[in-house]
Every structure is written in structure tokens, then in C-alpha cells.
């Protein structure tokens, strides 16, 4: 006959076999208690089984009779579960063709150098290619192959035009050596935008609006965007004329020197 040593649970008056939990506590209950102890412990999952067991027993008398062997088995399961949860959380933070890892939303822009790489299909894009990206996450997705153009709305059109305006202003300030080529690329994108805006009817824009909008209001906003587009094209044309003038002055100076 095998003899088992019994002992009383503190303050409960209940007898329990060593390694057997009292008061109907299950392995799931024990795992929850260990999880709480891991979170509270400074070393987290790196804490030793004995330290965690002591913490669990100090918090809950139901686990006073749990043996170290049983505790280790449940702790091992918990560690595996926590690692799976961590991997799942990391996977949830991975960006996609529709959004960045931080879920900030993607904004359309044109590449200003040839080193942009799509984070979805890993293809490289040339200068002036449209992409969708998030600067906070440094996440960029190519347009066409991976990120399709969204439903045309006045808000999206205004944002796209604002991006073009900012790029032209920045380009004029930067004045790179390939200024004429870069301006031509921006001008082509503005013309594409203008065509896209022309194809959008006031009715379709009103229907696509996230807020209720009358067709007449959508038409007025479309006209305002067209005016901004024309003004931007005039700025680009002015920049081209400035380059031509600079070139002419440079030629005159060269002739004078000669």
C-alpha cells in the first residue's frame, strides 16, 4: 500500500493530496494565476518556476497544494501560449498592400528618387512613379500591381493635388541638376490628375462623399480643384521659363568670356 502524506490548506480546513488542487480549481485556473504572476514579476517569463509558484500560492490559497512538477508542466504550456500570442501580435502589425504596420493609412505620392522599393512585391520604382505610403512606418506600396486606386472622392482628390503642389514647391527650392526632367515628370502627373478630375462627375463625387453632399456643392468643389490644378500647371510653366532664361544668360556669359 502506498501512503500519501496529507496536509491541511491554510485557513481552509480542507485536506488535499500533494499535487492536487482544492476548491475545484482547474489547470485553466492555474494557468490564469501563473499568467498574472508572470505579468507582475519583474523578470516576467524569465522568472524561475519556484519564484512564480511562491507568488501564485501567496495570492491564491487554492494552489497551496500544487506540486512543483505540475506547476512546471502548466508553466511550460503558458510559455508556449504566450510566445504564440506574441507572434500573432507581430503578424498583426505587419503592413499590407492596403495599410501600414501602424494602421495609419496610406497616402499617394510620387517617388523623388529611384531607390523606392514596394514593401509588398519588392519591385523598385523609377523616379516619378506613383506609390502609396506612410512615412511614420516607412511603408511604401506600388500603385497598380499592389495598391489599386481607391474610389474617387473629393477628399482623396484634394489630398492628391496637395501632394503634387508640395512636391513642385520642394522641387523649385531644391533646384537639382536634373530640374528640367523632374519638372517634366511632375507636369505629366498633374496632367494625369487633371484628366482624372475631369472624368469624375459631380454626381459621382457627391455619392462617394462620406458626408451628405448635394450635387451642386460637389460641382463647386470640383471647380475649385480644377482652378488649383491650372494654377499648379502655371507654376510649372513658369519654372520651365526660368530655366530657359537661366540657360540663355549662361550662354551669353560664355560668349562674353570667349
Describe the structure.
Strands 3-4-5 form a 3-stranded antiparallel sheet. A two-stranded antiparallel ribbon has the order 1-2. It is elongated, with a radius of gyration of 33 Å. The chain is mainly alpha-helical and 258 residues long.
Brief summary of the model shown:
55% of the residues lie in helices and 7% in strands. The protein has seven helices and five strands; from the N terminus they run ββαααβββαααα.
SSE order and pairing:
Elements: E1 7-8, E2 15-16, H1 27-40, H2 49-59, H3 68-92, E3 107-110, E4 130-134, E5 139-142, H4 154-174, H5 179-199, H6 202-208, H7 215-257
Antiparallel strand pairs: 1-2, 3-4, 4-5
Helix pairs in contact: 1-2, 1-3, 4-5, 4-7, 5-7, 6-7
What composes the largest sheet?
Answer: 3 strands, antiparallel
Rg, Cα atoms, Å:
33 Å
Number of β-strand runs:
5
Please state the average pLDDT score.
Answer: 82
**What percent of residues adopt helix (DSSP H or I)?**
55-70%
- Helix-strand string: EEHHHEEEHHHH
Our measurement of the CA-to-CA distance between the termini, rounded to an integer number of angstroms, reads 118 Å
Query: Reading side by side through the largest sheet, how are the strands ordered?
Result: 3-4-5
Unreliable parts: 1-19
Q: Report the β-strand fraction as a percent range.
A: 5-15%
Q: How many H/I helical runs?
A: 7
The rough form would be described as elongated
Amino acid at each position: 500500500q502506498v501512503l500519501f502524506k496529507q496536509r491541511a490548506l491554510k485557513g481552509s480546513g480542507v485536506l488535499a493530496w500533494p499535487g492536487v488542487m482544492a476548491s475545484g480549481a482547474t489547470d485553466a485556473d492555474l494557468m490564469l494565476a501563473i499568467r498574472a504572476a508572470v505579468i507582475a514579476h519583474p523578470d516576467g517569463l524569465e522568472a524561475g518556476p519556484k519564484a512564480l509558484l511562491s507568488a501564485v500560492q501567496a495570492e491564491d490559497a487554492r494552489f497551496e497544494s500544487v506540486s512543483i512538477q505540475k506547476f512546471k508542466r502548466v508553466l511550460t504550456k503558458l510559455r508556449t501560449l504566450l510566445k504564440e500570442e506574441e507572434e500573432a501580435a507581430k503578424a498583426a502589425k505587419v503592413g499590407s498592400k492596403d495599410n501600414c504596420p501602424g494602421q495609419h493609412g496610406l497616402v499617394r505620392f510620387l517617388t523623388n528618387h529611384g531607390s523606392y522599393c514596394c514593401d509588398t512585391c519588392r519591385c523598385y520604382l523609377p523616379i516619378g512613379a506613383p506609390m502609396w505610403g506612410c512615412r511614420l512606418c516607412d511603408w511604401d506600396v506600388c500603385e497598380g500591381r499592389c495598391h489599386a486606386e481607391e474610389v474617387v472622392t473629393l477628399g482623396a482628390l484634394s489630398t492628391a493635388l496637395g501632394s503634387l503642389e508640395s512636391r513642385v514647391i520642394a522641387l523649385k527650392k531644391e533646384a537639382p541638376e536634373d530640374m528640367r526632367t523632374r519638372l517634366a515628370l511632375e507636369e505629366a502627373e498633374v496632367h494625369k490628375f487633371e484628366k482624372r478630375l475631369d472624368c469624375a462627375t459631380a454626381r459621382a463625387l457627391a455619392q462617394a462623399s462620406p458626408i451628405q453632399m448635394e450635387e451642386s456643392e460637389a460641382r463647386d468643389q470640383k471647380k475649385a480643384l480644377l482652378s488649383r490644378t491650372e494654377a499648379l500647371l502655371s507654376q510649372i510653366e513658369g519654372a520651365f521659363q526660368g530655366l530657359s532664361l537661366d540657360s540663355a544668360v549662361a550662354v551669353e556669359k560664355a560668349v562674353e568670356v570667349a
